From TrEMBL:
Residues 291-307, 330-350, 364-380 have a biased composition (Low complexity). Residues 130-157, 274-380 are annotated as: Disordered. InterPro entries: DUF3027. Residues 130-148, 351-360 have a biased composition (Basic and acidic residues). It comes from the Bacteria. Residues 308-329 have a biased composition (Acidic residues). This is DUF3027 domain-containing protein. It comes from Actinomyces ruminicola.
């Protein structure tokens, strides 16, 4: 069984005679009461038992009428490796006869049977897309897509086109059938109006500045895309095709990609400084600045030595840390007697404050006062 595709290629379909018949075929077979009777079906099953194991014959599937008084009964096949195959028993009867006669027994492939591909002639095995630029194809003398370029058609427009093609030095040019097939193939392909993403385009190729018009019969339907950023660059596209790389297509203003925040640096309040070490050192060199710094340290050394005994004097005012915050700090030059007097005054104030507390806190306050008085130095 053969069929022809839209592109004109012939394909061979595998015949599966063991496929289940249609409802109309089964209804036509059921009209013959003799050949479709239970006795005829049982006789067909018994006949299969003579050529194969009875267990390999499965349930009864259906019957198909091949001709008048000629019917085939189908049984499922239980043989290992023959999934989808069916046993077929063809039976017939004479006119006005009441006895079914077995004509043929066979095993036929069904819908799910695994079969080898159908034989395709060598001349038909090559398909568009299988060849490269380096492959050379044989010449076909009778190609319905071509016609002689000098043949007069009787139509003024057709004759003019043929003469134009003849000027190019070609013996044959595209015929009307060749133009039709090419136009239909391009229009239905990935560069036509029904391609993926075309509906999202805001404009068609007919209004795009990158479209290169075509000459000849296809100029009103197709053109060539010349936009290097388009997916169809260098390809034939239909005028109602479209993409996002249209010459007049633009995106709405979406603002900057990153938020613009005002600067937190007040450049007007900045004071410019020097950019080199000499200016920062007041015009002195590095050696001069180092010698001057050492001299200043030497001049300030005696003052630091005189203040050393005072710094190393024992700190007898340790209880001062626990004094209330209300007492003003004593000057650093105060003597030991002055610090002791200040401490006694602080103790007196603390004792007066403790007496105001509840009786439950008096033992703890008395102990604290005793410890504080014991740590104070005696008056000389």
């Amino acid at each position: 069984m053969t069929s022809e595709t839209a592109a004109g290629h012939t394909t061979v379909e595998i015949d599966r005679p063991g496929a289940l018949p249609t409802a109309a075929q089964q209804a036509a077979a059921a009209k013959d009461k003799v050949l479709t009777s239970p006795d005829a079906i049982e006789a067909a099953r018994s006949a299969l038992g003579e050529i194969t194991e009875p267990l390999s014959v499965g349930r009864y599937a259906a019957s198909r009428q091949l001709d008048k008084r000629l019917i085939t009964h189908l049984f499922e096949c239980n043989l290992t490796g023959y999934r989808g195959w069916r046993w077929a028993v063809t039976m017939s009867r004479p006119p006005r006869g009441r006895t079914a006669t077995i004509c043929e027994l066979e095993l036929l492939p069904g819908e799910e049977a695994l079969l080898a591909p159908a034989w395709v002639p060598w001349a038909d095995r090559l398909r568009p897309g299988d060849t490269t630029r380096s492959d050379r194809l044989p010449r076909r003398e009778t190609d319905e897509r071509l016609e002689p370029g000098w043949e007069a058609t009787g139509e003024e427009e057709g004759d003019t086109v043929a003469l134009d093609e003849l000027d190019l030095g070609r013996a044959r040019v595209l015929s009307a059938e060749g133009y039709r097939r090419a136009a239909q193939r391009w229009y239905d392909g990935d560069h036509g109006p029904d391609a993926e993403g075309v509906r999202k385009a805001h404009a068609t190729c007919s209004t795009c500045g990158f479209l290169v018009p075509m000459a000849g019969r296809l100029r009103n339907t197709f053109g060539v895309c010349a936009n290097e950023w388009a997916a169809d660059d260098g390809r034939v596209v239909s005028l109602d095709h479209g993409c996002g790389a249209h010459s007049e297509t633009d995106l709405p203003d979406q603002g900057p990609e990153w938020p613009v925040a005002p600067s937190r640096l007040d450049e007007e309040a900045m004071e410019p400084l020097a950019t080199n070490g000499t200016d920062l050192r007041g015009g002195h060199g590095r050696d001069e600045a180092g010698a001057q710094e050492q001299q200043e340290q030497a001049e300030s050394a005696p003052a630091g030595a005189d203040a050393a005994p005072e710094e190393s004097a024992p700190e007898e005012s340790a209880p001062e840390e626990s004094a209330p915050e209300e007492s003003a700090p004593e000057p650093e030059v105060a003597s030991a007697s002055q610090r002791a007097a200040s401490a006694r005054d602080a103790v007196a104030d603390l004792a007066l404050e403790r007496e105001r507390h509840d009786a439950t806190q008096r033992p703890a306050a008395a102990d604290a006062l005793a410890q504080l008085e014991a740590s104070l130095p005696t008056r000389s």
